[in-house]
Amino acid sequence: MERISINEVVNALKGCVDPEIGLDIVDLGLIQGINIDENNNIKVKLTMTSPMCPVTSVILADAQLRIEHLNGAGNVDIDLVWDPAWSPEMISEEARMGMNI
Known about the structure:
The chain is α+β, with helices and mostly antiparallel strands. It has one domain: 2-Layer Sandwich (GMP Synthetase, Chain A, domain 3). The protein is 28% helix and 16% strand. The protein has helices at 6-13, 56-68, 93-99; strands at residues 31-36, 42-46, 76-80. A hairpin with a 5-residue loop joins β1 and β2. The N and C termini lie far apart (43 Å). The model has no long low-confidence stretch (mean pLDDT 94).
């Protein structure tokens, strides 16, 4: 079995867009960590821009499906975390330039 790479998971998550902001969750800085074990079980630590985010369930479901569709993916676990708290400084440099921040 070929191992799934962190880069493959990141690329899959780049397709997951926050519908309120219009940026993908990777460029928004919502990904707090990715762990892939020897059986291609994937655990992603993910945060939201706010604990009150009204689209949390949509983003979590989309991220889950995108990772599950990776060829060879085992169990996928999305862990919603709040520490460290998200801040605008977590937005990628590329996205900042596109937003004129």
